[in-house]
Amino acid sequence: MTRISIELVPRSSELLERDLEVLHERFKSVQMVNIPDILRYELRSWEACRQAKRTVPCAIPHLRAMDFNLCDLGPLKEALSRGNLSEVLIVQGDPPQDLGHRIFPTKSVDLIRAIKSLTPQVKVYAAIDPYRNSFRQEMAYIKAKVDAGADGFFTQPFFHQGLMEVWHDLLEGTEVFWGVSPVASERTQRYWETKNNAIFPGAFEPTLEWNRQFAKRALAWARSRNTNLYFMPIRLDLIRYLGGIL
């Protein structure tokens, strides 16, 4: 059965509650959210997920590996337990803009292994980036994460269905949430191409309508293959983007 998650940005408790109300009222089939940990906002991902679980059964916090000291994971274990959070997504994280924010030499593989050792009942997802390395290099990194204990993966957003199909073949038998994110301006497209080396099809148009049609096709594709999908609306209104799709 296809699971669908919506990535919500935790700008504040009030704005998060507004998004959760929209999901509850307009998209009742959505039973899951995933929430990134964004340092410029005060609300941490695990706190936001604790709040979200009042509305949806499943909430998955993103955990930035570099933010955690492997010698002191007690507070993280307590936070997951307090929030009744049974699934997490481990990402490496970008270096903070605030030089006062302390980071550690912890890698994604290290935190995956540590969490599975400390809380084996927690389901750990890891990240797949189809753009940062060659296929061979990324597949080797995926294997290292599986060996460390990763139970499944979330991908960076795809904009090209053919590329999704290639990766689906490579990851056969692996639990994956395939990312889909709207790119509704030329500026945003340039960001994805320049910052993340993303690939767009020749027929791509940076319009809401093109992105809605792609979201429909991606959802049908995921359901036909019994795999999972997550939508990352970012700045778009949830109803405008997902209305009539979910």
Question: Any overview of this molecule?
Answer:
The chain has 246 residues and is an alpha/beta fold. The chain is 40% helix and 17% strand. It has 9 helices and 8 strands. The chain has helices at residues 13-26, 45-52, 74-82, 108-118, 135-148, 161-170, 186-196, 208-224, 238-242, and strands spanning 4-7, 32-35, 58-64, 87-91, 123-128, 152-158, 176-180, 228-231. Strands 1-2-3-4-5-6-7-8 form an 8-stranded parallel β-barrel, surrounded by 5 helices. The longest helix has 17 residues, at 208-224. The two termini are 15 Å apart. The model has no long low-confidence stretch (mean pLDDT 96).
Helix content: 40-55%
Which parts are unreliable, with pLDDT below 50 for 5 consecutive residues or more? none
Q: Classify the secondary structure makeup into a structural class.
A: alpha/beta
Q: Tell me, what's the shape? A: globular
Main sheet strand line-up: 1-2-3-4-5-6-7-8
Please compute the radius of gyration using only Cα atoms.
17 Å
Order of helices and strands: EHEHEHEHEHEHEHHEH
Beta-strand residue fraction: 15-25%
Terminus-to-terminus distance: 15 Å
- Which whole number gives the mean pLDDT? 96
Number of strands: 8
Q: How many H/I helices?
A: 9
Described by strand count, sense and barrel closure, the largest sheet is: 8 strands, parallel, barrel
